[in-house]
Write a structure and sequence with these properties.
The complex is a heterotrimer.
Chain A: H1 2-22, H2 26-30, E1 39-44, H3 50-64, E2 67-72, H4 77-86, E3 93-96, H5 98-108, E4 125-127, E5 130-146, H6 147-154, H7 166-178, E6 185-186, H8 191-204, H9 209-218, H10 227-241, H11 254-262, E7 268-272, H12 276-279, E8 288-291, E9 305-315, H13 323-338, H14 340-349, H15 366-376, E10 380-381, H16 391-403, H17 409-422
Parallel strand pairs in A: 1-2, 1-3, 6-7, 9-10
Antiparallel strand pairs in A: 3-9, 4-5, 5-7, 5-8, 5-9
Chain B: H1 6-38, H2 56-63, H3 65-96, H4 103-111, H5 118-139, H6 153-182, H7 185-193, H8 198-209, H9 211-226, H10 230-236, H11 247-257, H12 261-292
Helix pairs in contact in B: 2-12, 3-4, 3-6, 3-9, 4-6, 5-10, 6-9, 6-10, 7-8, 9-12, 11-12
Chain C: H1 3-39, H2 44-49, H3 64-71, H4 74-105, H5 109-121, H6 126-140, H7 147-173, H8 176-184, H9 189-200, H10 202-218, H11 221-226, H12 235-239, H13 250-282
Helix pairs in contact in C: 3-13, 4-5, 4-7, 4-10, 5-7, 7-10, 8-9, 10-13
The chains are: A alpha/beta, B mainly alpha, C mainly alpha.
Chain lengths: 428, 293, 285
């Protein structure tokens, strides 16, 4: 019977050792009150501002007594939140993409319709007539230019408004190439850039977006013969022709492309104002900006960027979050919009283009300045937020094939059309 | 004490394997069964509703051509990688047990790749393939290095295989080293006195005595290659043109990115069954050989 | 020249060839680390534009290290990682070797079934268990955000493979006659195991210790699911912010990699000696 004793001792030792090292962190899980204040957790999905958010959280906690912790995950936003909800351990406040709101809102998002900031923005998201998504910023897509690099070759001041047509743009590229900048353009090969940003513009610039998309689902849209499709692809062909990485376009790394753009080795790249966070890591020039994708068209789309509200906060509505925590989260959102320090955090610290009319933004980065200019001039074409979940990955691969010269435009149109006919529509 | 009564056996089992069985069941078996149940629902991974849909996910799996392509690709990758990993590991193990100077140093060196996690490792190699090799190729004008291998379908596959060999060879070497060292030196001496060459000694003496090392290494490499995910994600992320998406990555995307959790889970289950059949068959055959050796 | 010197010369030549091959292979294996060491002392702009240069145009910098350490809260993460790795490894070795022993020495239906399930479980893709695991342990039991839960799961997941390795070792390296002698001398099974079998397993213990310690130290997915609070972060979770979804700060990744690698490298060098010693002392059998 000595044996059994030994086993029991061993088991007890194991259990107690487990208990021992588990002790002390038990309270952390409850997310409850700390001292007199409330604790809230924020999930941030913009990795480039994680540092700023953490700093802000510390200051905010010290000032208000509400303990704020900011988290980031490099997992897919949807997957990460799925695990947190499965674990009954959601974030009080989570920053997600627009399409995530639609899948999460019904079960997990609090009604924010009565909040003051709702009247100060055009970009909030509503589901079932309730406001649930707090827009964090405005972001837009277009062609990023490095004016210094262009002027160094041409010797003239670069006026982006002169190059809204593809003919003019191609003329400039030719001039740059002849002037010594052999390949003045860069194309990001990442599927999100190709499919979710560039290809998406061919839908978003249609005169009737919803109608066009339902035609795509039904298989009745003639993509290959569509004017906008061809106009966008014409521009893409020109970018491909002058791509610095033309010999191996799908090997172009984002970091390298952005460095070349920042330092003036290339002059143009299709992208968005979020690219500044990468560009600013290099020896950049301030003399940069964004312009619409040049196209030979007269429908006005070549005078507009595509974009709008981007990244949305929602407040958890499940039982895992207490009323006090929800209130603290609402206070925090209000602080961002109504308080001078909150405004400053958004615009100056994080370099985000504000989505609220009452926030002035004086100290933005050059790309955001462009975006703000277009946004203020009402020159933004809306994002289409309901692309099917696999659009990015599947059509991204098709676009990469095209970029690598493995398919022609007709075949690409055919593949994209086929994709849409098999895709599952997103309810909205 | 009687040793063949049921209660004695029970006590013996519980004494040695009781805790293990409990922990194993709690962490692996029960979640697995719950996961199995989820394959019969059309859950999207996050909503509160988990509607029961019977076999619909399995039908979707059979209709998902991208999945079967990914599986086929995983097979090709696994066969090549498993062979190369084991050949390289065996050669390494032989060399570092043959009494060369500094063999401990070499052993440590070959093992180093295992000291870092798969995700970081993928990023480092991506850096090597995309930047370092290209920079080397450009400065010495070596044609095949001057464009990144990761940009072509076959190149991406090659890169994955290279990284797998680099990552696992040192690990498997460790097991083969233990195998080589368990072959008693008397036998080897006898063989050498009888005039066997090195190759003959390895082939006729060491290899048969090392069957259990082979079984272990093959099983480990087969299962790891089949389940490759981390390196796939950080090295190629499926690019170019989704042509390097392996089974596990497709399953992950299906479940979480495309939000078809049930289908993803069903596809993962099929991946698991294929891998289990191959792996267990290999162990079974190996263990047979072990007995006869 | 007589036969002996010729043979000796032959041997020497072969030795040199082996050495050359080894050094070449070694260079291949170590190449990425050389690159890491070269680039970790550069700023990001230089890493991107000239990865092979020893010193970039912005000069030599040490800033990647303190920056990485600060951003990941290195010492706290290190403490968590160390506690979790050490405890999990010890428990795994104890339980797995005992389990393997009972499986090898008793051909019962129960042991066979357990071993079969363990082997099969080694090929379960972790993604299959991920959501059920958090649903159960978080959703039902509310046990997440404890280091103990992670240790428990680490042990559960690594038991299969460790048992598998001990199974092979006991099967081939532990002579049954020794055990029988001990039993005749009046030892119980339990005593026999600890006095005779366990000491003979030293090389395998060292191997399993390295392999599991490494796996625990580097594991990302499981800890990221179980430990969702900053104060519990392990090193791999703490470094994730360096490789964002869209952009990678490779300088910080490299610094973090070197910082995380050192402790485990030291453990390896220490245990490696042990493997050799263990094998030679066990060879007396």
């Amino acid at each position: 019977m000595k044996n059994r004793l030994v086993v029991m001792i061993l088991t007890a030792a194991t259990v107690s050792s487990l208990m021992a090292c588990g002790g002390g962190d038990g309270d952390a899980a409850s997310g409850g009150a700390e001292g007199t204040g409330v604790s809230i957790t924020i999930f941030n999905s913009k990795s480039e501002v994680q540092g700023q958010f953490e700093e802000m959280a510390e200051e905010y906690s010290a000032k208000t007594g509400v303990n704020v912790e900011v988290y980031y995950s490099n997992d897919t936003v949807a997957a990460h939140l799925a695990t947190r909800y499965s674990a009954n351990d959601p974030y009080t406040l989570a920053m997600v993409d627009a399409k995530d709101i639609y899948s999460l809102a019904e079960d997990y998002a609090s009604d924010l319709s009565d909040q003051e900031w709702v009247d100060k923005t055009d970009y909030e998201i509503s589901v079932n007539d309730k406001v649930v998504g707090f827009p964090v910023c405005v972001e837009a897509r277009g062609v990023i230019y490095n004016a210094d690099a262009i002027e160094a070759v041409t010797g003239e001041t670069f006026v982006p408004e002169d190059y809204t047509t593809l003919d003019a743009f191609e003329g400039l590229l030719e001039k740059l190439a002849a002037g010594g900048m052999e390949a003045p353009a860069g194309i990001m090969k990442e599927d999100w850039s190709l499919a979710a940003h560039y290809l998406a513009e061919t839908y978003e610039q249609q005169s009737d977006v919803e109608g066009f998309i339902s035609d795509l689902y039904a298989g009745s849209a003639d993509l290959a013969g569509n004017e906008k499709w061809n106009s966008m692809m014409d521009t893409f062909d020109v970018l491909m022709k002058y791509n610095y990485a033309a010999s191996s376009p799908v090997a172009a790394e984002r970091e390298v492309t952005e460095q070349k753009l920042a330092e003036g080795d290339i002059a143009f790249m299709f992208g968005g104002n979020w690219d500044w966070s990468v560009i600013s890591e290099y020896d950049y020039t301030e003399n940069m900006g964004m312009m619409p994708v040049p196209q030979n068209t007269n429908d006005g789309t070549n005078g507009k960027l595509v974009g709008g509200g981007s990244k949305y906060f929602f407040i958890d509505s499940s039982d895992n979050t207490s009323e006090e925590q929800r209130q603290a989260a609402k206070d925090f959102l209000n602080w961002l919009v109504q308080d001078g320090e909150g405004n400053q955090f958004l615009t100056e610290k994080c370099n985000l283009v504000p989505a609220y009319t009452n926030i002035s933004a004086a100290a933005l980065d050059p790309l955001s300045v462009s975006v703000k200019k277009y946004a203020d001039g009402n020159l933004l074409i809306d994002n289409y937020n309901y692309l099917p979940d696999d659009h990015l990955s599947v059509c991204g691969a098709f676009m990469q094939e095209y970029l690598a010269g493995k398919t022609d435009r007709t075949a690409l149109a055919e593949k994209v059309a086929q994709y849409w006919m098999a895709a599952t529509p997103i309810e909205h | 004490m009687k040793t063949n009564t049921f209660s004695y056996k029970c006590r013996l089992y519980l004494m040695f394997a009781g805790v293990s069985t409990a922990v194993f069941a709690a962490v692996v078996i029960i979640p697995f069964i719950y996961g199995l149940y989820l394959t019969f629902t059309s859950w999207d991974g996050v909503s509160k509703q988990k509607p029961f849909v019977a076999l619909q996910n399995y039908m979707a799996t059979f209709a998902d051509t991208a999945y079967w392509q990914a599986l086929g690709r995983t097979m090709i990758y696994s066969v090549i990688a498993v062979i190369l990993v084991n050949v390289v590991a065996f050669i390494l193990a032989y060399m570092v047990t043959s009494g060369v100077k500094g063999q401990n140093f070499f052993r440590a060196g070959f093992f180093i790749p295992n000291l870092i996690g798969g995700i970081v490792l993928g990023y480092i190699w991506k850096f090597v393939f995309n930047r370092a090799f290209v920079a080397l190729g450009e400065s010495f004008s070596i044609g095949f290095l001057s464009t990144s291998w990761l940009a072509t379908t076959n190149g991406a596959m090659l890169c994955l295989i290279i990284v797998s060999v680099w990552q696992y060879a040192g690990y498997m070497m460790l097991i083969y080293v233990a195998g080589f060292m368990s072959v008693s030196s008397d036998v080897l001496e006898a063989a050498s006195i009888d005039g066997c060459t090195d190759v003959q000694t390895i082939w006729y003496i060491s290899v048969p005595l090392m069957v259990s090392s082979f079984v272990q290494c093959l099983f480990l490499t087969i299962t790891r290659c089949f389940m490759v995910y981390d390196v796939n994600l950080s090295l190629t992320n499926g690019e170019p043109f989704n042509s390097s998406v392996m089974g596990a990555m497709h399953v992950y995307n299906q479940a979480f990115t495309y939000k078809n959790y049930g289908t993803g889970q069903a596809e993962a289950l099929i991946l698991f069954i294929i891998c289990a059949v191959v792996g267990v068959l290999q162990v079974y055959v190996g263990k047979k050989a072990e007995v006869s050796a | 020249m007589d036969e002996n010197t010729k043979a000796a010369q032959n041997k020497k030549v072969r030795h040199v060839i082996k050495m050359i091959i080894l050094i070449l292979l070694f260079a291949c294996f170590i190449f990425p680390f050389v690159l890491v060491v070269i680039n970790v002392f550069k700023v990001k702009a230089d890493i991107t534009s000239n990865p092979l240069a020893l010193i970039g145009s912005h000069g030599f910098t040490l800033k990647n290290f303190p920056e990485a350490m600060k951003k990941m809260n290195f010492w706290r993460a290190f403490g968590n990682s160390a506690l979790i790795t050490v405890t999990s490894t010890i428990l795994t070795i104890l339980f797995a070797s005992m389990t393997a022993y009972v499986i090898v020495r008793n051909k019962w239906k129960a042991t066979g079934a357990l071993f079969g399930m363990m082997i099969a479980s080694m090929v379960i893709p972790f993604q299959v268990l991920m959501i059920p695991l958090v649903s159960l342990y978080g959703g039902v039991f509310g046990l997440l955000n404890h280091r103990a839960t992670l240790i428990f799961m680490h042990v559960g997941f690594s038991l299969s493979m460790a048992t598998f390795m001990f199974h092979g070792a006991i099967h081939t390296n532990v002579p049954l006659s020794l055990e029988e002698a001990a039993i005749i001398d009046g030892c119980t099974r339990w005593q026999t195991y600890w006095k005779i079998v366990f000491p003979l397993l030293k090389p395998t213990i060292a191997t399993v210790a390295i392999i599991d310690a490494m796996a625990f130290w580097n594991d990302y997915l499981l800890p990221s699911l179980v430990l969702a609070r900053k104060e519990l972060y392990t090193i791999p979770i703490a470094t994730q912010v360096f490789y964002g979804t869209y952009s990678t700060d490779i300088g910080l990744v490299m610094a973090a990699l070197l910082l995380a690698m050192l402790p485990i490298l030291i453990l390896y060098v220490f245990l490696q000696r042990y493997i050799v010693e263990g094998v030679t002392s066990g060879a007396v059998k």
